[in-house]
Each structure stands twice: as structure tokens, then as C-alpha cells.
Amino acid sequence: xxxxxxxxxxxxxxxxxxxxxxxxxxxxxxxxxxxxxxxxxxxxxxxxxxxxxxxxxxxxxxxxxxxxxxxxxxxxxxxxxxxxxxxxxxxxxxxxxxxxxxxxxxxxxxxxxxxxxxxxxxxxxxxxxxxxxxxxxxxxxxxxxxxxxxxxxxxxxxxxxxxxxxxxxxxxxxxxxxxxxxxxxxxxxxxxxxxxxxxxx
Length: 201
Hints:
Elements lengths: L24 E7 L5 E8 L2 E5 L4 E9 L28 E8 L18 E9 L1 E5 L4 E5 L3 E5 L4 E3 L6 E9 L4 H6 L19
Antiparallel strand pairs: 1-2, 3-4, 4-5, 5-11, 6-9, 6-11, 7-8, 7-10
């Protein structure tokens, strides 16, 4: 892979705090007492988390904790009001919008930790440009591109000069025995289960 240009900002040059943009609008549907379909809530996604050192904002939109997901008439208690967890719960799903600010690359040209989750993730670039970093290659992404992330070790980087946004839909998964047999030593023990930076939580 190409090395990060020498002009990449170092940690000491990074801004101290991320300034989040407008949260995405979230519309939740349901049913009234007669079974008629209605809008239960309409407003900005209520929960966001910031990782200022990484220049990343997580807008938590919705998640489910089991499959099949229970669907009742009323809106459930707010499912996103919990500690930041990157992958979904076992048998669960998660949708979030991540905002990547420019100027937060490390010495390797990465913006996120290199990580692996036991999940299938659909990553959709909403605006801006992003780079997907894998073990042996990098993929340049632009608005409209969709990444199907299947449990691989990876990282993200915004190497442009403007904010990039991606929507992520994550589905809990399970590695097959065939994959487990060929993964590098320690890969299963190193899976990300929660906060991307638990040491600073």
C-alpha cells in the first residue's frame, strides 16, 4: 500500500474537539390501537457519540437485540440509549451514521483503529470521499458507493479536505469453521466487541 503523504496531520496537529453537524432525521413508524399504520416519532437521531481524537461522530439511529426482531404496536423504549458498541448485539442489528472529519490521520494514514467484527456490515457513502483499508489493499470510495464488509480486518480514513458521512447497517454474524481455520493466529481473540477505544472510556 502507498504510504501516507508527509503532509498528513499528526496527532499533535489535530483539533481538540469534533464539531458535529446536524444529526440525521429519523422517522419511526408503528400502529395505532386500531392497527392503522402511523408515524410514532419524527426528529433527529437522539443519540450521538464523539471520538474527538479520531475526528469521528457516531449518530446512533436504531438497533435490535434479537431475531426475529419483535414488532409491536407502540414505539419501544429508545434502543440507542446505551454505551457505544461497534458491532450489534448477538442476533441483533444496528444502523448508524458516522461522520468522519478531515485532519485526523495517524502516521499510517488511518482514521479508525484496525478492527474486525463478527458481523456483516453494509457501509454506504452518503457524502464526501472515504478510503477502506484492508490487509493488502486500499479502496477509494465516493458518494453512492456501498461496501459489503464481511468480518475482515479493516480500517477507515477520510484523506480529503472535507467531512465525509457513511451509513452503516450491521447484522450479527458467525464465522464458518472454514474461515476460522485460516484466520491469522489471535484473530478471534482480537475481535472488537464494544467501544473502539475502551482504554479511554
